[in-house]
Protein backbone atom coordinates (compact mmCIF):
# COMPACT_ATOMS: atom_id res chain seq x y z
CA UNK A 1 0.00 0.00 0.00
CA UNK A 2 1.44 3.34 -1.06
CA UNK A 3 1.83 5.89 1.72
CA UNK A 4 2.75 9.55 1.50
CA UNK A 5 3.98 11.78 4.31
CA UNK A 6 4.42 15.53 4.17
CA UNK A 7 7.05 17.34 6.24
CA UNK A 8 7.66 21.05 6.66
CA UNK A 9 8.40 23.89 9.08
CA UNK A 10 4.83 24.64 10.18
CA UNK A 11 5.43 28.39 10.29
CA UNK A 12 6.82 30.72 7.63
CA UNK A 13 7.20 34.51 7.70
CA UNK A 14 5.53 36.70 5.08
CA UNK A 15 7.60 37.24 1.91
CA UNK A 16 9.71 34.14 2.60
CA UNK A 17 9.73 30.87 0.66
CA UNK A 18 7.68 27.92 1.85
CA UNK A 19 9.33 24.50 1.50
CA UNK A 20 7.61 21.15 1.93
CA UNK A 21 8.73 17.60 1.22
CA UNK A 22 6.65 14.50 0.55
CA UNK A 23 8.17 11.09 1.25
CA UNK A 24 6.68 8.14 -0.62
CA UNK A 25 6.78 4.62 0.81
CA UNK A 26 5.34 1.28 -0.19
CA UNK A 27 5.97 1.73 -3.89
CA UNK A 28 8.16 3.18 -6.59
CA UNK A 29 7.81 6.73 -7.87
CA UNK A 30 8.47 5.55 -11.41
CA UNK A 31 5.82 6.00 -14.11
CA UNK A 32 3.62 8.17 -11.93
CA UNK A 33 2.73 11.83 -11.60
CA UNK A 34 2.94 13.34 -8.13
CA UNK A 35 0.98 16.35 -7.03
CA UNK A 36 0.55 19.05 -4.40
CA UNK A 37 -2.88 20.28 -3.29
CA UNK A 38 -3.73 22.73 -0.55
CA UNK A 39 -6.84 23.41 1.50
CA UNK A 40 -7.72 26.65 3.21
CA UNK A 41 -10.96 27.86 4.79
CA UNK A 42 -11.16 30.70 2.30
CA UNK A 43 -10.42 28.92 -0.98
CA UNK A 44 -11.25 25.29 -0.27
CA UNK A 45 -9.25 22.65 -2.11
CA UNK A 46 -6.81 24.04 -4.68
CA UNK A 47 -4.56 22.03 -6.98
CA UNK A 48 -1.03 23.51 -7.01
CA UNK A 49 0.80 21.42 -9.59
CA UNK A 50 2.33 18.07 -10.44
CA UNK A 51 5.63 16.50 -11.40
CA UNK A 52 6.34 13.37 -13.40
CA UNK A 53 8.92 11.02 -11.90
CA UNK A 54 11.30 12.05 -14.70
CA UNK A 55 11.02 15.70 -13.69
CA UNK A 56 8.47 17.24 -16.08
CA UNK A 57 6.23 19.70 -14.27
CA UNK A 58 2.90 21.43 -14.74
CA UNK A 59 1.58 24.16 -12.47
CA UNK A 60 -1.74 25.83 -11.78
CA UNK A 61 -1.54 29.11 -13.75
CA UNK A 62 -2.80 30.99 -10.70
CA UNK A 63 0.36 30.03 -8.76
CA UNK A 64 2.81 29.33 -11.58
CA UNK A 65 4.98 32.40 -11.03
CA UNK A 66 5.71 31.39 -7.43
CA UNK A 67 5.80 27.57 -7.52
CA UNK A 68 8.61 25.09 -8.04
CA UNK A 69 8.09 21.32 -7.68
CA UNK A 70 11.08 19.00 -7.81
CA UNK A 71 11.65 15.25 -7.43
CA UNK A 72 14.41 13.06 -6.02
CA UNK A 73 13.57 9.47 -6.92
CA UNK A 74 16.70 8.17 -5.17
CA UNK A 75 15.14 9.32 -1.89
CA UNK A 76 11.54 8.58 -2.95
CA UNK A 77 10.70 12.23 -2.33
CA UNK A 78 9.25 15.21 -4.12
CA UNK A 79 9.18 18.78 -2.90
CA UNK A 80 7.26 22.03 -3.13
CA UNK A 81 8.65 25.54 -2.95
CA UNK A 82 6.29 28.53 -2.90
CA UNK A 83 7.94 31.93 -2.90
CA UNK A 84 6.82 35.33 -1.60
CA UNK A 85 4.21 33.87 0.71
CA UNK A 86 1.43 35.91 2.33
CA UNK A 87 -1.26 35.10 4.87
CA UNK A 88 -3.40 33.88 1.97
CA UNK A 89 -1.00 30.93 1.59
CA UNK A 90 -1.84 29.65 5.07
CA UNK A 91 -3.35 26.22 4.47
CA UNK A 92 -3.06 22.50 4.94
CA UNK A 93 -0.80 21.21 2.19
CA UNK A 94 -1.33 17.70 0.86
CA UNK A 95 0.81 15.60 -1.42
CA UNK A 96 -0.86 12.96 -3.58
CA UNK A 97 -0.21 10.36 -6.25
CA UNK A 98 -1.99 10.85 -9.55
CA UNK A 99 -3.53 7.75 -11.11
CA UNK A 100 -1.52 6.34 -14.00
CA UNK A 101 -4.44 6.13 -16.46
CA UNK A 102 -6.61 9.07 -15.39
CA UNK A 103 -5.55 12.14 -13.49
CA UNK A 104 -7.47 11.73 -10.25
CA UNK A 105 -5.76 11.69 -6.87
CA UNK A 106 -5.71 8.09 -5.70
CA UNK A 107 -3.44 8.31 -2.65
CA UNK A 108 -3.06 11.28 -0.31
CA UNK A 109 -0.73 12.20 2.50
CA UNK A 110 -2.22 13.16 5.86
CA UNK A 111 -1.52 16.85 5.27
CA UNK A 112 0.82 19.46 6.76
CA UNK A 113 -0.49 22.70 8.23
CA UNK A 114 1.55 25.67 7.17
CA UNK A 115 0.91 29.06 8.75
CA UNK A 116 2.25 32.32 7.33
CA UNK A 117 2.78 34.80 10.15
CA UNK A 118 5.42 37.19 11.43
CA UNK B 1 -11.00 27.37 -15.58
CA UNK B 2 -13.95 25.08 -14.88
CA UNK B 3 -15.89 26.15 -11.79
CA UNK B 4 -17.68 23.35 -9.92
CA UNK B 5 -20.71 24.31 -7.82
CA UNK B 6 -21.96 21.79 -5.28
CA UNK B 7 -25.40 21.76 -3.72
CA UNK B 8 -26.71 21.76 -1.15
CA UNK B 9 -24.09 23.22 1.14
CA UNK B 10 -25.33 21.04 3.99
CA UNK B 11 -27.54 17.96 3.84
CA UNK B 12 -29.20 16.83 7.07
CA UNK B 13 -30.27 13.19 7.02
CA UNK B 14 -31.36 10.40 9.27
CA UNK B 15 -29.21 7.23 9.08
CA UNK B 16 -30.54 5.10 6.24
CA UNK B 17 -32.16 8.05 4.45
CA UNK B 18 -30.96 8.32 0.84
CA UNK B 19 -28.50 11.14 0.15
CA UNK B 20 -28.29 12.92 -3.21
CA UNK B 21 -25.44 15.38 -3.74
CA UNK B 22 -25.15 17.58 -6.82
CA UNK B 23 -22.12 18.96 -8.66
CA UNK B 24 -22.60 21.36 -11.56
CA UNK B 25 -19.75 22.43 -13.85
CA UNK B 26 -19.46 25.81 -15.58
CA UNK B 27 -18.57 24.00 -18.82
CA UNK B 28 -18.63 20.43 -20.01
CA UNK B 29 -16.20 18.09 -18.24
CA UNK B 30 -14.11 16.40 -20.89
CA UNK B 31 -13.60 12.64 -21.17
CA UNK B 32 -15.92 12.01 -18.17
CA UNK B 33 -13.07 12.97 -15.89
CA UNK B 34 -15.09 13.69 -12.74
CA UNK B 35 -14.23 12.32 -9.28
CA UNK B 36 -15.77 12.41 -5.80
CA UNK B 37 -13.88 12.46 -2.50
CA UNK B 38 -14.95 12.06 1.12
CA UNK B 39 -13.28 14.02 3.88
CA UNK B 40 -13.68 13.57 7.63
CA UNK B 41 -12.42 16.08 10.23
CA UNK B 42 -8.66 16.08 10.56
CA UNK B 43 -8.19 13.68 7.65
CA UNK B 44 -7.16 13.94 4.04
CA UNK B 45 -9.76 13.53 1.32
CA UNK B 46 -10.36 9.91 0.29
CA UNK B 47 -11.18 8.90 -3.28
CA UNK B 48 -14.67 7.43 -3.64
CA UNK B 49 -15.58 7.66 -7.33
CA UNK B 50 -13.63 8.37 -10.52
CA UNK B 51 -14.68 8.60 -14.17
CA UNK B 52 -18.15 9.78 -13.02
CA UNK B 53 -19.31 6.34 -11.86
CA UNK B 54 -16.42 3.95 -11.11
CA UNK B 55 -15.98 3.12 -7.44
CA UNK B 56 -12.46 3.19 -6.06
CA UNK B 57 -11.02 0.08 -4.45
CA UNK B 58 -12.77 -0.83 -1.21
CA UNK B 59 -15.63 1.64 -1.57
CA UNK B 60 -18.99 0.03 -0.69
CA UNK B 61 -21.69 -0.19 -3.33
CA UNK B 62 -24.02 2.11 -1.40
CA UNK B 63 -21.97 4.91 -3.04
CA UNK B 64 -22.77 5.57 -6.68
CA UNK B 65 -21.99 8.32 -9.15
CA UNK B 66 -23.85 9.41 -12.26
CA UNK B 67 -24.23 12.25 -14.70
CA UNK B 68 -22.68 13.67 -17.84
CA UNK B 69 -21.61 16.92 -19.43
CA UNK B 70 -22.08 19.55 -16.74
CA UNK B 71 -24.35 17.82 -14.20
CA UNK B 72 -23.20 15.11 -11.85
CA UNK B 73 -24.63 13.34 -8.82
CA UNK B 74 -23.24 11.34 -5.92
CA UNK B 75 -25.81 9.10 -4.25
CA UNK B 76 -25.45 7.34 -0.92
CA UNK B 77 -28.26 4.81 -0.92
CA UNK B 78 -28.44 4.01 2.81
CA UNK B 79 -25.95 6.14 4.73
CA UNK B 80 -24.13 4.47 7.57
CA UNK B 81 -22.96 6.50 10.60
CA UNK B 82 -19.41 6.59 9.16
CA UNK B 83 -20.67 8.27 5.96
CA UNK B 84 -21.42 11.56 7.67
CA UNK B 85 -18.63 13.76 6.31
CA UNK B 86 -17.87 16.41 3.69
CA UNK B 87 -17.93 15.40 0.01
CA UNK B 88 -16.09 17.13 -2.82
CA UNK B 89 -16.32 16.74 -6.57
CA UNK B 90 -13.26 17.34 -8.75
CA UNK B 91 -12.76 17.60 -12.49
CA UNK B 92 -9.48 16.47 -14.01
CA UNK B 93 -10.31 16.76 -17.70
CA UNK B 94 -9.18 20.36 -18.17
CA UNK B 95 -6.31 22.25 -16.64
CA UNK B 96 -6.29 23.62 -14.04
CA UNK B 97 -7.90 20.72 -12.21
CA UNK B 98 -10.55 22.11 -9.90
CA UNK B 99 -12.68 21.10 -6.92
CA UNK B 100 -16.16 22.00 -5.79
CA UNK B 101 -16.62 23.79 -2.48
CA UNK B 102 -18.04 20.70 -0.78
CA UNK B 103 -21.31 19.36 0.64
CA UNK B 104 -21.48 18.49 4.32
CA UNK B 105 -23.65 15.48 5.09
CA UNK B 106 -24.73 15.59 8.71
CA UNK B 107 -26.95 13.57 10.99
CA UNK B 108 -30.38 15.09 11.49
Structure characterization notes:
The complex is a heterodimer of chains A (118) and B (108). By secondary structure, chain A is an all-beta fold. Helices cover 0% and strands 54% of the residues of chain A. In chain A, the strands form 2 sheets. In chain A, strands 2, 4, 5, 6, 9, 10 and 11 form a 7-stranded mixed β-sheet that branches. In chain A, strands 1-3-8-7 form a 4-stranded antiparallel β-sheet, with no helix packed on it. In chain A, 37% of the residues are buried. The model of chain A has no long low-confidence stretch (mean pLDDT 96). With 108 residues, chain B is mainly beta. Chain B has strands at residues 4-7, 10-13, 19-25, 34-39, 46-50, 54-55, 63-68, 71-76, 86-91, 98-99, 103-107. Chain B is built from no helices and 11 strands. The radius of gyration of chain B is 13 Å and the shape is globular. In chain B, 0% of the residues lie in helices and 49% in strands. The chains are: A mainly beta (118), B mainly beta (108). The A-B interface holds A 44-47, 58, 60-62, 94, 99, 102-106, 108-111 and B 33, 35, 37, 43-47, 50-51, 56, 88, 90, 92, 95-102.
List strands and helices in order, with pairings:
The complex is a heterodimer of chains A (118) and B (108).
Chain A (H helix, E strand, L loop, with lengths): L2 E5 L3 E2 L5 E8 L7 E8 L3 E9 L4 E3 L7 E6 L4 E6 L8 E8 L6 E4 L3 E5 L2
Parallel strand pairs in A: 2-11
Antiparallel strand pairs in A: 1-3, 3-8, 4-5, 4-9, 5-6, 7-8, 9-10, 9-11
Chain B lengths: L3 E4 L2 E4 L5 E7 L8 E6 L6 E5 L3 E2 L7 E6 L2 E6 L9 E6 L6 E2 L3 E5 L1
Parallel strand pairs in B: 2-11
Antiparallel strand pairs in B: 1-3, 3-8, 4-5, 4-9, 5-6, 7-8, 9-10, 9-11
Amino acid sequence: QVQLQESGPGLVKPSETLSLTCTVSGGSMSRYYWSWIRQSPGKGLEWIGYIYYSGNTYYNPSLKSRVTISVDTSKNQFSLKLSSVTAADTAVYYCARVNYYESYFEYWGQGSLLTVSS
Amino acid sequence: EIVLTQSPGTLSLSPGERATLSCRASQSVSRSYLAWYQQKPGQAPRLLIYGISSRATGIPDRFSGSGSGTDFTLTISRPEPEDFAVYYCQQYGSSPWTFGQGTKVEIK
